[in-house]
Fold this sequence. Notes:
Largest sheet: 8 strands, mixed
Order of helices and strands: HEEEHEHEHEHHEHEH
CATH topology of the largest domain: Rossmann fold
Number of domains: 2
Low-confidence stretches: none
Helix content: 25-40%
Amino acid sequence: MNLIFLSILLLVVVFAAYWGYFWICQNRILFPTHKLKQSEPLSVETFWLNFEWGKTEALFLPGSGEGALPTVIVAHGQMGLIDGWYERLSTLQNQGMNCLLVEFPGYGRSEGVCSVQKLKETFCAAYDWAIAQPSVDASQIIGLGRSMGGGVITQLAKLRTLRCLWLMSTFTSLRPFIAKKWIPPVLLNDSLNTLTTLRQLDIPCLILHGASDDVIPAEHSRVLANVVSESQLMMEPGDHEHCPADWERFLTDAVEYYQKLVAAPSKH
């Protein structure tokens, strides 16, 4: 009996320590900036968004065309940086769209320690900066998010007005991933619940996912598409790291999706 009691007690202590570690270190676990390579300054001009915790870098890429243009605000993934994105977005620029790449706090050359709350503040500040620019059509702001960035950009849609979302390899919520590690989801400060937010907003969505994704299973995107009345689900054969296989083709398809929305009577 004593051995059973001691075993149970040991198990309780181990799990309590494990859960305590996650509770204290969840920002470091969810946003592992310590695993990213040191980044050098970009060869293009960036600007800075200032917060009480420090400054966050952003990059505005003007689209080809005159007047106020549609603008795509981009949120990269958990292990990404804006450095790896700006060259591939020329497809959007050539089709008359501005692009605004926003770094995560603490990532790359940006300051602070990343958290979901700071990400919300950062992307709201970036949005507010964008709509104040004369080259930006404030009624035509598009959110593009990949993986973790899909959860972030969907939260932006909850806090600011977006015309539509382009989601890539995005999850329904962080809760299923935490639960798989035997961590009670209640310990999450914010689960980035994309599913609940999309169900509430019912904002038009183009959703892309790799059918062989073993990081965020494709079922997540299927569920997301099912709760949005104006959604288009695109499945590719690739895994998490190789979706889309052809960026130019995907971005061209995304522009076509947006143009159809603009041409059709808006429900929002």
